[in-house]
Hints:
The complex is a heterodimer. Chain A is of the alpha/beta class. In chain A, 36% of the residues lie in helices and 18% in strands.
Amino acid sequence: MKTPARELTYAEAIREGFAIALERDPRVLLMGLGVPDPKGFFGTTLNLQKQFGADRVMDMPCAENGMSGIMLGAALNGLRPVINHQRLDFALLAMDPICTQAAKWSYMFGGAMKMPVVFRMIIGRGWGQGPQHSQCLQSWFAHIPGLKVVMPTTPHDAKGLLIAAIEDDNPVVFIEHRWLHHIKGEVPAGHYTVPIGPARLAREGGDITIVAFSYMVLEALEAAEKLAEDGIDAEVIDVRSLRPLDQTLLLVSLRKTGRLVVADTGHSTAGMAAEILAIASESAFGSLKAAPRRICFPECPTPTSPTLAAEYYPRAGHIVAAARVVLQRQPNEDDLLIPAGAELDKPNPAFTGPF
Amino acid sequence: MSPTTDNAVSTTTEVSVRLLESMVRIRMVEEAIAAHYPEQGMRCPVHLSIGQEAASAGACMALRPDDLAMSGHRSHAHYLGKGGDLKAMIAEIYGKATGCCHGRGGSMHLVDLKAGFVGAVPIVGSTIPIATGLAFADHQLKRDRVTVAFLGEAATEEGVFHESVNFASLHHLPIVFVCENNLYSVYSPMSVRQPAHREVWQLAAGHGVTARQGDGNDPLAVYELMRAAVAQARAGRGPVFLELKTYRWREHCGAGFDNHIGYRTEAEYLTWRERDPIAIFESRLKESGEFDALRDAQFKSRVESEIAEAFAAAKSAPFPAGSTLMHHVYAAP
């Protein structure tokens, strides 16, 4: 008899991943401003302090840089810390410990030490997050050898990659998108890991490859549905690991479709989408039937007002329109229509703010 | 030869003699680096501690071998004081496969885990939080161990210094911050960096930790300050900050002298030369009858051979093979 599938939200899946990691290994430690607070970090750390104690699920001084360095020392001396940032923008205060210390530690000391630390950061979006609460700088971290960088999209991968990150002996940057926290999906109970590295085939198709990152995978899947209405069969790849980056799945898909659209939460210049295009042109040049396209943020900071934000964030329709260009089909003005009553600055109708 | 790192020394005379020997050994190693540096075999920056040896000798003498230490760009003295392997250090400066980082670090990245020297990096202040994290883990895991963060006074201008001391104070972590105030950050004097009406140690005192100031050129004074500091930290009575006034003799980076370039005066340098921690301490021991000329001569002769051996071994050791370039980017599974 088959057990019925168990559904959790992405936030619940993160919380469950933490609980399992804390339960299995007494060296695991959660640190972060607000980690034990009543709101539980968007529900992802709810009641963990009650369950595991104040010395394992810890609040901290408002000192992202120093506390990140302190977690590196803790990692070198027998703990397996996760430092949590409610917004990626705060983690930027800690670029030295992340990129110049943690990422180099194994290499520069000739392999004498391991650095099992997780830097968890959340990308904000909508409801006026604005210029300093919604930066998508995954490419900064993915640029650095010595780091591993993951951006899970599904609740299943969120839990499995979180546990894998905590169990990894290297520094891992774990990036969540705020608009994924309420998404539901099948999540196995108990301990499991999703290996850091392989991409995920989110939808099989033969006409065009859509490579997407984090929240944009959801928009890409919606785009694929819209394209299907026009008889176009899109393949969607979820690049859940940015470093190491799985080229195999991408190249197999490109050799099949010969057409590529990349959708990233981030700017196009020197971004992850550019990296995907580079891989395509270096390793699948002969397979490409048309010039690929990128769907990225405009080259300006994130605005706050809902009208500007609506203009700023690309949607499924933008991916559809790009796909038509790559497929050398006629453009369709309806692609970018916004349905009446749609509130583009909210992750879901139930959301009422404040962050 | 094992340097000091042992606080179970029986008599005060033995303490004093070992302090002198520790300083002499550090001085001799660094003088040898300075002598060989023009040969162009050591192809990395070197930051010598000549003139500042008392801080390392005094601080490390108060530690147990299993206690931990970290340092910054000027770390040779701390590494040697803590018992770091001399051969591995010299080979590392020569960029050889036998170096303590297998040629990936150089002079600014010394490590010897067996000696409890957990590492040094040249980003000013960056090891302060990491050392604090070592102490935090020991505190969490209820281990009986003290960590020393060696830093210069310029590192107290970095935000992470304050973030680390605040956290160490908050959790009563077993750490001692040993700050050598040598008056300059590269060529920038204190007058352009910190207010004259506020002493460096007062910064730490503001975070609610025990903070003391001492003569960084008097190894016995450093040792006594450090012994009390380590005892306090080990007993769980909270961290200690020590400001040790001292002076770098040679150029900021490199083997020569830089008084002529105009950032400090020859007169200031000569005043501090007069306060040579080794010469003064040796005279004191002679006056008190604690100096043993024969032991001193034998010690220096042993260190001379040890240094000659370390340089010969480093020079003849193989460079890391190009094929190992990608090794250790990630931890071995």
